[in-house]
Amino acid sequence: MTPIDPRLDLALRRVIRAPRHTIWTAWTDPSLLERWWVPSPAVARVERLDVRPGGAFVTSMSQDGNGFVPHTDAVFLAVDPEHRLVFTNAVDGTWRPATPEPVTMTAEIALDDHPDGTDYRILVRHGDPSTRDHHERLGFLEGWGSVTEALARICENEDPT
Hints:
- This protein is α+β, with helices and mostly antiparallel strands.
- The protein has one domain: Alpha-D-Glucose-1,6-Bisphosphate, Chain A, domain 4.
- The chain is built from four helices and seven strands.
- A hairpin with a 6-residue loop joins strand 2 (43-49) and strand 3.
- The longest helix has 19 residues, at 140-158.
- Residues 17-154 form the Activator of Hsp90 ATPase homologue 1/2-like C-terminal domain.
């Protein structure tokens, strides 16, 4: 994972008591990703998940399970199987420049072996300090933290691989 610039970046780290393969599968299998990608009680739907550099990462979400609205429209920049995923919403899933709400970001997910499972790290980069601060005020740690907890719960308790 690249160095963190605290003026521009937000980060989250957690040990998940499951092997990297299990976490990778939860990230790359659409039926599993839908189970943890948005904070509960909202639900996610995977529209497109093409896990390769340049592939689309498009999801929608619903508060009631009926009406879905766009959630993530991004493209993968780097994919190192079972080790690292990098995606940005600065370019949408059709490779058009985007101006996403609430913030433009590049997210890096890193998975490394840990004696208790997997060292799971998230680094979210922003273009300027005001965008980073805005994302933090919107609840970055709570939102990304709750979905990381949901991911861990699935990987630690169900072994979906």
